[in-house]
Specification:
This protein is mainly alpha-helical. It is built from 5 helices and no strands. The radius of gyration is 18 Å and the shape is globular. The two termini are 26 Å apart.
């Protein structure tokens, strides 16, 4: 085959994929809190505690379930840990701190991080 590689997948703009997945992961954190707050209000019998400035998102629960499934089943342990630390925790952590804490070499860290983002994008149907 040589330089010509047979591929079944269409090429994608990896930067756009990365931006989209990161945005969805950050939104996921907020959606989880939103669902917990909604459940708490329902249990307390409270409606309209805060003003509603946009139409209620009935897809929030489905999005949370699907992102959780993608995180749980499409990533290996190291990939999941990288995504958890980098995008799902409230404190911002630099890449260098993550790969040092995980005992990974820089190249291996970025390889795992990139693979994790592509796997999440594939699992969610983004690509």
């Amino acid at each position: 085959m040589g330089a010509e590689q047979l591929t079944l997948l269409e090429p994608v703009d990896e930067k756009l994929v990365r931006q989209t997945v990161i945005r969805e992961l950050k939104n996921y954190r907020a959606l989880k809190v939103q669902l917990a707050n909604k459940k708490e209000r329902e249990e307390a019998g409270v409606v309209g505690l805060f003003p509603l400035l946009r139409k209620e998102d009935n897809l929030a629960e489905l999005k949370v379930k699907q992102i959780e499934r993608a995180l749980q089943h499409s990533l290996d342990e190291i990939e999941r840990e990288i995504i958890q630390i980098k995008y799902l925790e409230s404190k911002q952590t630099k890449d260098i701190n993550i790969y040092m804490d995980l005992g990974l070499k820089k190249e291996k860290y970025y390889e795992k991080k990139g693979a994790a983002i592509l796997n999440i994008a594939t699992s969610l149907g983004i690509i």
